[in-house]
Amino acid sequence: MDGVVRPGRRLEPQARRDQILAGAVAYFAEVGLGGTTRDLAQRIGITQALLYRYFASKAELVEAVFERVFLDRLSPHWNAEIADRSRPLEERLRHFYRQYAAAIFTYEWMRIFMWAGLAGEALNQRYLSRVGDSLLAQLRDEIAAAGPYGAPDMEAMWALHGSIVYLGIRRFIYQLPTPDDVSPVIDESVDRFLAGIRRPQAG
Amino acid sequence: MDGVVRPGRRLEPQARRDQILAGAVAYFAEVGLGGTTRDLAQRIGITQALLYRYFASKAELVEAVFERVFLDRLSPHWNAEIADRSRPLEERLRHFYRQYAAAIFTYEWMRIFMWAGLAGEALNQRYLSRVGDSLLAQLRDEIAAAGPYGAPDMEAMWALHGSIVYLGIRRFIYQLPTPDDVSPVIDESVDRFLAGIRRPQAG
DNA sequence: TCGCTTGTTGATCATCTGATCACCAGAAAC
DNA sequence: GTTTCTGGTGATCAGATGATCAACAAGCGA
Lengths: 203, 203
Prior knowledge:
Two copies of one chain form a homodimer. Chain A contains ten helices and no strands.
């Protein structure tokens, strides 16, 4: 029992702030950004007033939640790994999407991202623009350069992306049963995609 | 100007109820089910109290919104069309997903479905279970029976489904730019999927 | 043990929100 | 024009919610 402390227990400001933020991420992921400060405080095991010693307003707390959830979600290594032509394209694609899924297939990320998207948060659009302009565009270029495949357009890349992300949506948003291990499913989606754009073996 | 009436204007109960329901669908799609009855009433151009002449509570209004949005979204004809083996499989698949997209790619449906999903509504799960158990399973069987394709498992079918639905998610949830005409994009996703599971031409 | 610092609390405020009700007024019937 | 029915309104209530603040007490230093 780590997060549970008896009432009145004094914590170092940094520790308390972290505790609140972690609790807020879990709470808002579950009930949405419209969740109340009282419910959140009760779940953490502190009084509602204490929240306001560490965050000036609920909006600021939500902002901190976004920052923690969105920050460093896209690994800077991915671009280099995608472009590493010493490895077969198929392996790079599979590897990327296994990594990507490992990064975003969490209850907190998936749901807060979706809540924020519905709320019209600009962060979502910026994040997805980066996914498209940087990662997917690069994947497309690597596929085109690999030889045996016809050059896919961006909509094809988004379709591949969607086929994989939708697995996380089914699991964490709609809470439907999905395979415990997503790796083979992801590999098969990637393989099917590549097979689907393979050039006919003429000449 | 149809929906705009001057204050105090009397409407037939059915017309007023329809007006409120239509307004509620549009309003809740935009701001979520947590939207207030006052804002909704103001948008419709009536007083908040009037809502309660037609709906006993906000929960009942939301229920009516669900009913209107969810009802008859899955056409009963689709199953027969999918199974109509007098037409080529490829054409049936393309046709189905063009129809399906036409049915669900609306601002109201996409967003209310997602709000409801995040809120844990059982309707979503029932709807998606039907999509999987009835439509996707049948599509899978038809593909397997068609001959030139390897039998896809249900995860493969969900991947195809996701690759197409994600287009609507990008447009209506994240409000990112997407092609105006989705038909060619859908056709290409279907074609790519089938090409991806085509048996090697041996013997 | 005492005193000080400051993390924490309970009470409270203003506002928002769902819901109710007495009363008003549009329009059809005569 | 008058009456009658009922759709519509403004006022209001109770509870919820974000935010504030004076007072309390945990824990450290002397």
